[in-house]
Amino acid sequence: MGDMEKEAVSLGLIGNLSALIGTSEPALRVLISLLLGYPIALIHRKYLYGKEPNVQYLYFVLTGLGLGYFNYGNDVFHAVFAVAFTYMTLVLFGGSEIAVALIFIFNMGYLLTGYYYSGTDSYDINWTVPQCVLVLRLIGVVFDLYDGRQPIESLNADGKKIALHKRPAFLEFCGYQFFPTSFLIGPQFSLKRFQEFTKGVYSSQGDLTKPPDSVHYALRRFGAAVMYLILFQVLGLFVSDDYIISEQFDQLPFLKKALLLGVWGRYSLYKYISCWLFAEGGCVLFGLSHNGYNEKGEVLWNGVENVKIAVLENTTQFNHYIQSFNVNTNHWVAHYIYKRLKFLNNRLLSQAGALLFLAIWHGFHTGYYVCFLFEFLVIYLEKDLVTTLKTNTGLWAFLTENAMVSLMIHILLRIYTFVFMGWCLLPFVLLTFDRYWRAYGAVNYMGMILYLPWPILYGPVLKKLIGRKKPRVHTE
Hints:
- The protein is mainly alpha-helical.
- The chain is 71% helix and 0% strand.
- It starts with a helix and ends in a 10-residue tail after the last helix.
């Protein structure tokens, strides 16, 4: 057998297919797994919905681990070990503070060890991808059990809804952790939601044996996923990670580079969005995403929505991106990290702590830390600017009540968020200092010039220029 034939055999069908369409084999395996979530959900709807919960749990474990093995082979047992250790800790210590500390430290430590030994200078699709999703889910369970021990009046609204008063059975716990349409890339959802789903609470028309009427909404999310995947491929014809740091890009006029940076930002976002929408559609098809009813009495199926498309595509402030992109992870961090830092008595410190957690959770690359630093600065600028403008009632009225001025500001803000989202994503996507610093230089370090001096220079100067002045007191 010749060398080329041996190479073809070693690649296998999926390897050859990935080479043919110009993507990596790990990425193609993830996409295939997301698509397989739909027939897995249909089988559950047809044969297992409303049946004995343990049978459902076993199905979720087998299919979830099967998808994990298809992607990562024996490395999927890293997840199995983490789940086993976490459950053993819950058996020994329940929802105590000791359990919270042990499970948090072990799972974060295990994940970071995985990053250290398996990471490279690029984004790696390996066992640490589902592991980072699993870490949040495991930590979330012990926090929910801890909350279940607290006086109910001490819990916030979310805590009251998802607190757990009893440790789940082992098979139930595993079914939740390895749920097939969320194990690989999310979305995050609470164990309480999973329990309601398997008990038939989300059944159609109150019939516990009848699957939820969620097929139509699942197809809508699937269609949106296909659309964003196509958009990602189309934008890839014009921009790419390598192009942004190329000499060819560097030689373009500044305004064209700024515009292309915005296009590249959308290209980078759409890769994640398409995958999340595929995963969400699978969860919706299972019937997991029930979210109450609208004013017309119609069921809402957006309970695990990870992307709010209408908000994301109409952003005029960066907070809109936070509200609409990776929604479930942002909500998880807000509930389990940000709100639990209230003992700091400072919202900025709590926000900084939450963003630091996110950076550490992503890994060791400096790009993650720079990205979340800029997120902190961008949100600080937006809030500080609005607060300052509102102190001058005349100026604020002129900016908000004049239709023509408001329209012009809206257009400028749309352009601003479009371009600077690309800026903020540079370190997150390019990861290493030499790559994102070159990209920063290509656009004249414009984000640094805008954001870094704001707290100590631009903001204070603006307050003096337009802030409300105290009326003078005339004395005789």
